Amino acid sequence: MDQPIGVIDSGVGGLTVAKELMRQLPREEFIYLGDTLRCPYGSRPAEEVRIYTWEMVNFLMQYRIKMLVVACNTATAFVLDELKQNLNIPVVGVIQPGARAAIKTSQNLKIGVIGTTGTIQSKAYPDVLRDIHSEIDVYSLACPQLVPMVEKGMLSGGEAEKIVEESLSPFKDIQDMDTLILGCTHYPLIRPVIQKVMGEEVTIISSGEETARDVSAILSYNDLLYNGERKPSHKFFTTGNLAIFQHIANSWFGYQLPFVKSVRL
Ligand code: I24
Ligand code: DGL
């Protein structure tokens, strides 16, 4: 199908998911919208996240998207069910794919989840994990310091390690948790630091990577994959400052994105 796939996020973090989607689905065309103006979502009340997320969805619907990917964990936690009920296209969030992968990986079903305050308070991860398998021990932990840390460009080094260690210290008391879900768009960028702090015995699951696998399966199952000859021309939109978004996105993808625009929702 010759229609684009929509991707929404609270800002630039969802670019980690978008990159993985483009890698796994190189013939598909993507339209990304990041609400950088109102980022972060992770510390906002559910109702605010709900309203902002719908504004993003309504914007992307103008582009006749054939599928919607909610790349933001916080938006997925608060709004995914409502989106699924009200849209007539497939909607995929980042929580279920990560949860499923964690259950497949874990030997002892002791699974940790880290995310924003909103994601953790919503209990969306424990709910979804227990839906898939009823006998799971879920250890949830909000890490509000980690998004600001990544957004300062602190991705490695002693100071980053100290903040990650401090954030994850409640997990110290938990014996033999063998799997940890990165329940936030930004955490894959500090995955090596998180791995070092948790130790090599813990398997880390990156929700974004797992989501791209699911999107691919759902497109194929619904016969929505693109099968023509054109080269995809992706579009990127930000609600915030264009130059800052461009700078981060270009550096993340490693080339100049040809179409980046700032929009008002
Ligand atoms: N990474 C993120 N956000 C930033 C940043 C970063 N600055 C440096 N790096 N800033 O998120 C966000 C600040 N807002 C201000 C308002 O406008 C929008 C931006 C994670 C990016 C995920 C792709 C570090 C950095 C980078 C490029 C790629 C990766 C990365 F600059 F971690
Ligand atoms: N995108 C958000 C998430 O994955 C992190 C940034 C924010 O708080 O908006 O939960």
Keywords:
alpha/beta, Rossmann fold, six-stranded parallel beta sheet, four-stranded parallel beta sheet, binds ligand I24, binds D-glutamic acid, 2 domains, 265 residues, 11 helices
Uncertain runs are none
Strand content: 15-25%
Query: For the residues shown, what is the average pLDDT?
Result: 97
Helix content: 40-55%
Using DSSP, what is the number of strands? Answer: 10
Q: Give the C-level CATH assignment of the largest domain.
A: Alpha Beta
CATH arch. level architecture of the largest domain: 3-Layer(aba) Sandwich
| Number of continuous helical runs | 11
Number of domains: 2
What compounds are bound to the protein? ligand I24, D-glutamic acid
CATH topology of the largest domain: Rossmann fold
Shape: globular
Work out the radius of gyration.
18 Å
Task: Give an overview of the whole structure.
Helix 11 links the parallel strand 9 and strand 10. The protein has a 6-stranded parallel sheet, sandwiched between helices. A 4-stranded parallel sheet has the order 6-5-7-8. It is globular. The protein is α/β, with parallel strands linked by helices and 265 residues long. The mean pLDDT is 97. It is 45% helix and 17% strand. The chain folds into 2 domains: 143 residues, Rossmann fold; 113 residues, 3-Layer(aba) Sandwich (Rossmann fold). The two termini are 27 Å apart. The site of D-glutamic acid (DGL) has 18 residues, from helix 3.
